[in-house]
């Protein structure tokens, strides 16, 4: 990744880039509106959520539909197009963690009962590339592959510990509202103590314990246990930290599989 | 889908659109370069294949990388980013055909030995949304989800039989090299006889037999059997036509499942 201070094209909010870059971001913002809870959306809803003029949305939908990235139903709602099928197997194969890693993650779920995620940093975001859901009815679930903020959450503090200076510059430009000095202190503290615990930073009532996964001495990912804050009580946190640390050490020793070429 | 003669934004070749639309098309053209045979590509290769200036490609890659759609390896090659994981389950779930349809397709493979595909029309392209591979070493394989031309191949002639006028207008604009009058005659003949047989239209040495799948009296998809031309001999074609027609009638009667909302 080439970071350029003069290239604001990696902004996440499409409103802050220009021209063609903005169009690509708008397209991705629109495609992001579709998830398991909202597989179809009416035009009206897409206009509201993208905060774009209706004419722009209609034009964008027509473009995406022509490219097979969006499809419409007979009832006038829109969803993901069949073209995504083209990338399904390839992206899964490329980002698959080793069977050994998945086994350690499942064992960690068995031990804690809570959802386990493996996060990596991508540019100035964090992304879960593997998830094993917890065993309880009320559990933490994130969308694998979705970009989450690097300014919030336990895994963010772990991953930022290994982030180069340009990532901090991006954060400064994108998140003027965040106290980066405070975040730097938290990141430094996390690196020193070896784990991070957060409660409700990104979402009220959601807690997480995260530790680094190292390969060849470098932090390449973060393993976390997440669940409702009500179960992350003081008397349990210690056990969670121990369990996730053990698991991360096993994964660090064995490796994550072929996905490491990206990390 | 709103077709507009004054909206050339649905052109497939990015060179023929303008502004933001072109950027989105270029981005998709670039992402299309990655497939099972080419999961990673060096910058040099991407520049050559996209036929874009190197500076444009570098800028585009930086944008896509910032959005998590592209990732780079330590050796300087690029591949699909982890963000695609976000759409994997959803797109698979949305475009999944019913278990009954898959069973009929597998039985058709057992009967013919050749690869079976279920194609739909999307805008002015055709796309396989389900595939059962043949049982022989030399077999026909297409990428499920990939946009293929509606001007070539047996399933194209079946699907065009149900295409509205604006689709023909798009084909006229996009494929000035194609004799559309001749194609119209072939499509009419296919509709009359109920099947289409092609040899080497899209790829030398590849043959196909295709028939329509109808729902509520309307052609919504095309079922095909494809393989090397050397096995699609005159004495075998009749059997293939019978087999694929039987299978299509069973699918037409039972339905394709929830994917029908898009068809």
From TrEMBL, chains A, B:
Keyword annotations: DNA-binding, Transcription, Transcription regulation
Domain IclR-ED, residue spans: 76-257
Pfam families, sorted: HTH_IclR, IclR_C
Taxonomic superkingdom: Bacteria
Molecular-function GO terms, alphabetical: DNA binding; DNA-binding transcription factor activity
Biological process annotations from GO: negative regulation of DNA-templated transcription
Annotated HTH iclR-type domain residues: 21-82
UniProt xrefs under InterPro entries: GAF-like_dom_sf, HTH_MetabolicPath_Reg, Tscrpt_reg_IclR_C, Tscrpt_reg_IclR_N, WH-like_DNA-bd_sf, WH_DNA-bd_sf
Protein name, as recorded: IclR family transcriptional regulator
The organism of origin for this protein: Pseudonocardia kunmingensis
